[in-house]
C-alpha cells in the first residue's frame, strides 16, 4: 500500500526493512482506547472552536464509535502498513466516513497524540496498581490480625536477634506497600497534565482550547510548554521507578516466603494452590510463585534502565527513539500486576506454623537483650557491664547446651550475686515481645493497634 499519509512528498515505497524497524502497531495497539478517547475530545473541541463543521464532527464521532465497537469485538483490522495505532485509526476512519476523516488531524500531530495516549495509559496503570496494592495490604492485614501474638524470631544478618510477632512482620510489608501506593498516587498527580494541542512541537495557529480537551480527558490542566509536552517521558520513567521499588518489596517478601517454606525453617506452609511439584522428586513442594515474583523484579528494574537509556541523550523535541518507550512500560506493568495478584493470593494462602515459629523464637539466646536490660533496670548496672555479664551467661548456656530461661539461678548468681528469681520473668520470648510496647513496637497490643489504624486508612 505504500505510505498514503505522506504520499505528497514521497514517490517511492519504503524498503521492507524500513517498514520492519518502523512498525509499532504490534505493541501500540494497546493504546487503541486511549487514542479513540483523545480523538473524540479533540474532535469535539475543534467543532466548538469552529475549526471543523458540525457535519464533519458528527461524521468523525460516528466513525470513531464504529471503530470503538470493532476494537471491542476484535474485528478491527490492525494493519502493519499503517505503521502505528494513530494511523491505523485514521486510515480506518477514512474507509468508514471518507474525506472528512482528514479533518480530525487539524491542529494535531502524532507527537502530541502519542504523548496524550501514552500518558492516559500509564495513568490508568498507576490507578490499577494502587488498587492491587491495597488488596495485597488487606491480605497482609488479615494475617497480621490472625497472628498478632504469634511469636517468631526477628532477624538481623539472618541471625536470630530478638523475638517478634508474625503479625508485626506482616505489618512491616503493609508499610512498604503503603509507601509504594503513595508513590504511584504522587506520580499520577504530576503526570496528570494534558500534552494534547502541543501539536508537532510548537503549538497550533488554530484557535484550539487545550483546557477543554484536558478536562474532557480527565487531566487537571494542559501542559504549559509545547516543546516539553512532546519530549517528556518523565511520567513513564517515574512510574517505572515506583514500580521498581514496589517490585523490590515484593521480591523481599517472596524471598522470605521461600526461606520460611524450607523444611529447615518450616515457619509457613503454602497449599497446593501456590506450590508446584517436581517431575522427579516426589517429596517436593516448591514455592515457584514466590521465586517468579522474586525474579520479575528484574523486569521492572530492566524496564526503568531501558527507558532511561533511550531518553538520556535525546535532544528536544520528539525523536523516533521515543517509540521504544512503550514495550518496556507495558511489559513492566504486566509483570508488576501479575506479581501483585500472585502475591496477594499467596499471602492469603500462607498458613504459619505457630508452634514451630515460637520454638524458633526461643532459640539462639534470643532474649539476651532482655536479660541485659533487666540488669540495667533492676541492679543499676551500666549497659556495657550488663552486656558483658549477659555475654558470659550466653557462653555458660552454650556450654550447658540450654537456652537462657533454662539456666539455673545459681549459674546466673555466679555471674552477679544480686540476680534474683525475678529475672526469669523477662527471659521467655513471649515476655520479651510483650514488653516491646513502644509505638510501632512488636508487642501484640501494638500490632493490633496498627492493624486498626491501617483498616481505617483502607476503609
Ligand atoms: N508511533 C510513534 C511513537 O510511538 C508516534 C509518533 C510518531 N511521530 C512522528 N513524528 N514520527 O512514538
UniProtKB/TrEMBL annotation:
Catalytic reactions of this protein: 2-(N(omega)-L-arginino)succinate = fumarate + L-arginine
Protein name: Argininosuccinate lyase
Organism this protein belongs to: Phenylobacterium deserti
Record GO biological process: L-arginine biosynthetic process via ornithine
Pathway involvement of the protein, from the record: Amino-acid biosynthesis; L-arginine biosynthesis; L-arginine from L-ornithine and carbamoyl phosphate: step 3/3
Keywords from the named record: Amino-acid biosynthesis, Arginine biosynthesis, Cytoplasm, Lyase
E.C. no: 4.3.2.1
A GO MF term: argininosuccinate lyase activity
InterPro entries: Arg_succ_lyase_C (IPR029419), Argininosuccinate_lyase (IPR009049), Fumarase/histidase_N (IPR024083), Fumarate_lyase_CS (IPR020557), Fumarate_lyase_fam (IPR000362), Fumarate_lyase_N (IPR022761), L-Aspartase-like (IPR008948)
Keyword Coiled coil applies: no
Start and end residues of each Fumarate lyase N-terminal domain: 8-302
Domain of life, per lineage: Bacteria
Record domain Argininosuccinate lyase C-terminal: where: 365-432
GO cellular component: cytosol
Similarity comment: family membership: Belongs to the lyase 1 family. Argininosuccinate lyase subfamily.
SUPFAM superfamilies in alphabetical order: L-aspartase-like
Subcellular location(s) of the protein: Cytoplasm
